[in-house]
Amino acid sequence: MNFQERDGWTIRILAEDQRTLLISDWAVGKKETLLSIINRLHGDVARAKRVIRWENRGNVWIDISEAQIAALRAYKRPRVKANTSAICRPTLQ
């Protein structure tokens, strides 16, 4: 999972080969939402917090199932500005 701040947070999820794009430009409005998604996908939240603090972008390794990919695709939203209250809450179980 790659993420960066651009008028809110943008997430991209890549396959293990690090070339195949599974989820492209999924927008979340707040850093807390990004960290919640990383936590729910069993990513390294502590590492994400460190790289966010220093660079406002980064990546973490996650194990994601086909069902989770489908859930994220279903809840993908267009880009929103960081100060809006639009929050996506997919079921990632």
Can you describe this structure in just a few lines?
With 93 residues, the chain is an alpha+beta fold. Helices cover 32% and strands 23% of the residues.
Please supply descriptive tags for the structure shown above.
4-stranded antiparallel sheet; 23% strand; globular; alpha+beta; 93 residues
Strand content: 15-25%
**Percent in helix:** 25-40%
Oligomeric description of these chains: single chain
Pairing-aware structural class of the strands and helices?
A: alpha+beta
Structural shape: globular
Number of H/I helices: 3
Distance from first to last alpha carbon: 17 Å
Spatial order of the strands forming the largest sheet? 3-2-1-4
The major beta sheet can be summarized as: 4 strands, antiparallel
Counting DSSP E segments of at least 2 residues, the number of strands comes to 4
Instruction: Give the topology string: H per helix, E per strand.
Output: EEEHHEH
Mean pLDDT: 80
Rg value = 12 Å
**Low-pLDDT stretches:** 82-87
